[in-house]
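Support reply, case 0932

Customer input (verbatim):
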Amino acid sequence: MSEDTNKPPSASQTRSMEGRSSRTRTGRRGPRSSGPKQFDSSVPSPCVAVCQFNGEPFCQGCYRNLDEIREWMIMSREQKMSVLDVISKRRMEDTGEQLW
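Our regenerated output:
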């Protein structure tokens, strides 16, 4: 048995091994998708550029809450239609006016 087999790897060998292992990692956010994510733009945003909360849990302009505003761009068409239904009810309760 030779003495070389019991030696720890050199610094260059360690860097080489690290390089190989890092290439197989998927990253902090998980595996990358095969292409750019497609966002639904068939439902326009209800934003009216008022953006006031005044102590309410929803915006006084569009009647969405913070989560609904933040997530709007990544929601599916069905999710957006559901939010529009909810904000229509909020506006009716708050002002007595029908949104559409």
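We compared this against your earlier run and they match. Two observations from our side: Residues 48-100 form one domain. The two ends are 85 Å apart (CA to CA). Please reopen the case if you see a mismatch on your end.
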